[in-house]
Design a protein that fits this description.
Protein name: Isocitrate lyase/PEP mutase family protein
Shape: globular
Organism: Lichenifustis flavocetrariae
Number of domains: 2
Low-confidence stretches: none
GO molecular function: oxo-acid-lyase activity
Keywords: Lyase
Strand order of the largest sheet: 2-3-4-5-6
Oligomer: single chain
CATH superfamily of the largest domain: Phosphoenolpyruvate-binding domains
Helix content: 40-55%
Strand content: 5-15%
Number of helices: 12
CATH topology of the largest domain: TIM Barrel
Pfam families: PEP_mutase
């Protein structure tokens, strides 16, 4: 199937809302639901694959593998978190080429020092503005596909205050970023002002439990945002469901309970692709009639 163009959606004034897809079970379920865009979160893909925090521990190679697997699995167009670009300018160039070849529609790079931290946790530090400006220029020059968009994220709200974050965001827009992402805004007033001040499409991060007020897609569009990611929703929902199921199991010794809904096993087999496996077996397995 043909995946949506993020560039075209933004050009047409469509508000783009992308939930985080943290693992491949979630990916196949999202295909059943039907999504146009999805977000590959560094936090949640690191947590789901390795059980580790988003603190610059996962490598470029590990994250590229996860992102490429998600792009192959999910029907939606993937917007991908590439942390700091995994190093200096040469690393940024390599990262953009790798993520683009994997098939993402947008690559997000942030201005934190390495090792980075989750945007809604303490102890973040940012690089000089000029260093990030150069990363954006390199990222824009590295892409081969004009459909690939570069998202520039600033984490300077915590370190430099709102005005400092805005100065950086304006510089990143001037450097050529297609989308600007002021991370961890702390009030609706800051959210509205950031949209008013920036002359490029602005992205919001609706991180459940984070510093930024959660607002609906319609509310964010009215504020002036062009797009929003909801990176935590599926990961937190899955964690809550698993905790509920395991707690029940520990207490009762069974997987069956009216209080713990289970996804239909047959339907899941269909989603994960067993229909093709069984069709292959019917055609090629020894001793199996063609019409079995």
């Amino acid at each position: 199937m043909s995946k949506r163009s993020l560039k075209q959606a933004l050009a047409q004034g469509e508000f783009v809302a992308a939930p985080g897809i943290h693992d491949m079970i979630t990916a196949v379920i999202s295909n059943k639901v039907g999504l146009d865009f999805a977000y590959a979160s560094g936090f949640w893909m690191t947590a789901s694959a390795f059980g580790l925090p988003d603190a610059g521990i996962a490598t470029y190679t590990q994250m590229l593998d996860r992102v490429a697997t998600l792009v192959r699995t999910v029907d939606a167009s993937v917007i991908a978190d590439a942390d700091t670009g995994y190093g200096g300018l040469l690393n940024v160039h390599h990262t953009v080429r790798g993520y683009e070849e994997a098939g993402v529609v947008a690559i997000q790079i942030e201005d934190q020092e390495f090792p980075k931290k989750c945007g809604h946790t303490p102890f973040k530090r940012v690089v000089p503005t000029l260093d990030m400006v150069e990363k954006i220029r390199v990222a824009c020059a590295a892409r081969r596909n004009p459909e690939t968009l570069i998202i520039a994220r600033t984490d300077a709200r915590q370190t430099d205050g709102f005005e400092g974050a805005m100065r950086r965001a304006e510089a990143y827009a001037e450097a050529g970023a297609d989308i600007v992402f002021p991370e961890a805004m702390e009030s609706e007033a800051e959210m509205r002002e950031s949209c008013r001040r920036l002359n490029k499409p602005v992205m919001a991060n609706m991180a459940d439990g984070g510093k930024t007020p959660i607002r609906s897609a319609a509310e964010l569009k009215a504020m002036g945002y062009a797009m929003a990611i909801y990176p935590s929703m599926t990961g937190l929902a899955a964690a809550a469901a698993v905790e509920s199921a395991l707690t029940m199991f520990k207490a009762t010794g069974t997987s069956e309970s009216p209080d713990v809904p289970l996804f239909n096993f047959g339907a899941f087999n269909h989603l994960i692709g067993f229909d093709d496996v069984w069709a292959f077996e019917r055609k090629w397995a020894r001793g199996t009639p063609d019409n079995a």
